Amino acid sequence: MRSSSDGAGPDAGPPHVLVVGGGISGLAAAESLVRADARVRVTVVEATSRLGGIVGTDRSDGFVMERGPDVVVAAKPATRLLCERLGIADRLQGTQVRGAYVYRAGALRRLPAGLSGMMPTRLGPLATSRLLSLRGLLRFASEPWRAAAAPGAAGEDESLEGFVVRRMGREAYDRLVEPLLTGIYAGDGARLSLSATFPQLQSLEREHGSLLRGLRARAATGAPAPASPFLSFPTGMQELVEGLTRALERTGRVAIRTGVPARALRAPGVAGPALTLADGTSITGDAVVLALPARASAALLAPLDSAVARDLRAIPHGSTATVTLAYAAADVPRALDATGYVVPRIEERDALACTWASSKLAGRAPAGMALFRLFFGGARRPALAVLDDDGLQALARTELREVLGVTAAPRLVRVTRWLDAMPQYELGHAGRVAAIEARAAGLPWLALAGNAYHGVGVPDCIRSGEGAAARVLGWLARGVDAPVSGAA
Ligand SMILES: Cc1cc2nc3c(=O)[nH]c(=O)nc-3n(C[C@H](O)[C@H](O)[C@H](O)COP(=O)(O)OP(=O)(O)OC[C@H]3O[C@@H](n4cnc5c(N)ncnc54)[C@H](O)[C@@H]3O)c2cc1C
């Protein structure tokens, strides 16, 4: 079952894998495929004119402005390991300041020291942060003595909000944990599934009978904290995409087709599975990795398996808009001595968070300039993600005026929208993904990758692409008869 590309028909050449989607998941899958097997050829098909998907950096006038992610979590090793293979590990850059603020009742309060996985663990710093009332502090302090949920007592799947309120109290959730944890998904903690978003918190309660005891034990015995908890690159996250692209091109075995969406997918025939592209051409291969947003995968899979397409469409997605603004540093009347601030839902502001980009990472703005990035929309205020540019810019300027006292006009403004781009791991997510994987196992020449299944962060997406590559290689090694599971 060997085939050639562009409809030239089957031949006995080297195995050919079609990777649909040129975001970080698809590029990681392609890199894994060509690295693992020197015979494999890969064609990457990407709908837009550039690779990287949500990962992308605008570099202009001396500014480095992220369109999507600005950092990766250092504790997840997938990014560093990939960078080492790509020869760009020396380009990894830590944050230049530590800590952040949380907005509370008209002022910014420093996040307390002793956060572990963004959860407070120490009473003293929490008390001096003045984020919680005395009553809220006492409730937090009582956590180790609260009974752990009996297995299954909180239902098969508990919400993030339900869990943290049950363990640490309403105030600790509303004023501190909610903006930190739900912000990653731009989601609603009452709907996000604990087991799908932060399974480690559930395990800590089960193993230690208390979240605080578990977090403290993990901090005492776990791996030492990395020098910087977050990593990026001197000229932005796009460096990761560029490193991957160079590595793929160097092999001479990867064809990259940008600017042309895949429109249809055909199950294996004489010439293996085939993709029809929007320009009317088709490509045949021996196996397919769909590294796409869930709905785009659903559209391609619907004619082959309507149930898997239905389950893929059932994963809700949220939208966000970011507004990046540059100011003369002299126009900013307060010290930018942190990575930025987050805004709890209960504060009822329009912005979700504000990153002080030029403080967070070196080299983001020319000397004498300050660069901010504000986040809008998400589950909290979905309508703001589709507001026009002028409206978003006005909201961003109001936020900076009211919170930081910035009244000057910005020197530069960039608006980026990500519509339906952020999967929401809501209650029942793990079950939905298990059903998708079980159905997809019936299409053994196919593997799914992307941010919709087992993690939305860049390191999770890299692992997802690598997992999909492993499944496809297993299929190629075993031949057409042996099934492999479908989703990474
Ligand atoms: C604003 C924002 C900030 C974020 N910040 C962080 C952060 O700081 N750290 C972090 O770790 N993560 C962050 N994330 C999450 C992370 O960036 C994403 O989850 C990840 O980049 C998704 O990668 P992906 O390859 O799975 O999907 P995508 O990047 O969505 O790639 C999918 C690709 O498929 C293409 N495509 C779609 N349909 C077709 C088709 N029919 N044919 C061919 N191609 C198609 C798309 O054009 C796209 O390029 C952020 C996300 C957003 C939106």
In CATH, what is the homologous superfamily of the largest domain?
A: FAD/NAD(P)-binding domain
Termini separation comes to 24 Å
CATH topology group of the largest domain: FAD/NAD(P)-binding domain
Provide the helix percentage.
Answer: 25-40%
CATH class of the largest domain, please?
Alpha Beta
Widest beta sheet: strand line-up: 8-7-18-19-20-17-21
Chemical compounds bound to the protein? flavin-adenine dinucleotide
Quaternary structure classification: single chain
Low-confidence stretches: 1-11, 481-488
The domain tally reads 3
Strand content: 15-25%
Task: Identify the CATH architecture of the largest domain.
Answer: 3-Layer(bba) Sandwich
Biggest sheet record: 7 strands, mixed
- What radius of gyration results from the CA coordinates? 23 Å
Domain Amine oxidase: 24-473
EC number: 1.3.3.15
Family: Belongs to the protoporphyrinogen/coproporphyrinogen oxidase family. Coproporphyrinogen III oxidase subfamily.
Enzyme class: oxidoreductase
3D structure, described in words:
It is a single chain. With 488 residues, the chain is of the alpha+beta class. It folds into three domains: 16-53 and 239-315 and 427-478, FAD/NAD(P)-binding domain; 111-221, protoporphyrinogen ix oxidase, domain 3; 317-421, Polyamine Oxidase, Chain A, domain 2. The protein has 16 helices and 22 strands. It has helices spanning 24-36, 78-86, 123-128, 134-141, 160-168, 170-183, 194-197, 199-208, 211-221, 238-251, 294-301, 306-313, 357-360, 389-404, 429-440, 458-478, and strands at 16-20, 41-45, 57-60, 63-66, 72-73, 93-94, 101-104, 107-110, 115-116, 119-120, 230-232, 254-257, 262-269, 272-277, 282-284, 287-291, 317-328, 340-342, 353-356, 369-377, 412-423, 446-449. The chain has a seven-stranded mixed beta sheet with strand order 8-7-18-19-20-17-21. A five-stranded parallel beta sheet has the order 12-2-1-16-22. The two termini are 24 Å apart. 51% of the residues are buried. The chain binds flavin-adenine dinucleotide. The site of flavin-adenine dinucleotide has 36 residues, from α1, β17, β21 and α16.
